[in-house]
Amino acid sequence: SWKALTLQLLRCGKCKPECTTHVPRANLYYSPRDKILGTGLIMEAFLYEEQTRRGISVRHFEEMNDVADHCTVCHRCLNPCPVNIDFGDVSMKLRAVLKKQGKRHVNLGTWSSMAYLNATDPFTVKIMHKTMIQMGFKAQRLAHSAAKYLGLLANKKKKPPLPTTGKTPLREQVVHFVKKPMPGNLPTRTTRGMLGLEDDKMVPILRVPNKVSEDSDAVFYFPGCGSERLFSQ
């Protein structure tokens, strides 16, 4: 349960150096320790409002979305944790609860990227790769060049970053989107396409012609992070 998870937490902070969403120099403090404490407080708020019949505040769902969204589900926090808390699994449970309650935030970028990574039909993958990766990356590079030419990206005086809590204003999202150019000169086809292995019912086997033994067959593994579709490396 959430309460047991909060009580199990030692608050040692060993997960902080490993966490992708804990970057103090960027004013980003969503470490697993802080997120678990925050999750416990949200659960306590829900319980208090239910027991006192005050009605459930929608604000708590906003806070839960904020905690759940600040996790890449990389599971790197599990190894250093002395009590084996995997906040990646916790984040997935939080998102499942929000979706079940109909309170999950809808993000077009997240939806489209997950649709692309989960697509298995070769034609769908080609269309999405052409529009989202090739055309999208090119449009972003053009926007970066235009912003740089107009002097919109020049930092005359560096200021401390604002706290990354809640939803980022649209203006800041646009600035961050065009701040650095996306990579160019990438292959126009995915790794599966180049190898002719687009059939999802096929299990690719790599063979070494001059080696015949029980170790001569190997399953060709495509990483689940989506790198082969994004960069074909």
Automatic annotation (TrEMBL):
According to the entry, every stretch annotated as the 4Fe-4S ferredoxin-type domain falls at 11-85
Cite the GO molecular-function annotations of the record: iron-sulfur cluster binding; metal ion binding
Q: What is this protein called?
A: FAD-linked oxidase
* Keyword Transferase carried by entry: no
Q: Which UniProt keywords apply?
A: Iron, Iron-sulfur, Metal-binding
What start-end ranges are recorded for coiled-coil regions in this protein? Answer: none
Q: Which InterPro entries match?
A: 4Fe4S_Fe-S-bd (IPR017896), 4Fe4S_Fe_S_CS (IPR017900), Helical_ferredxn (IPR009051)
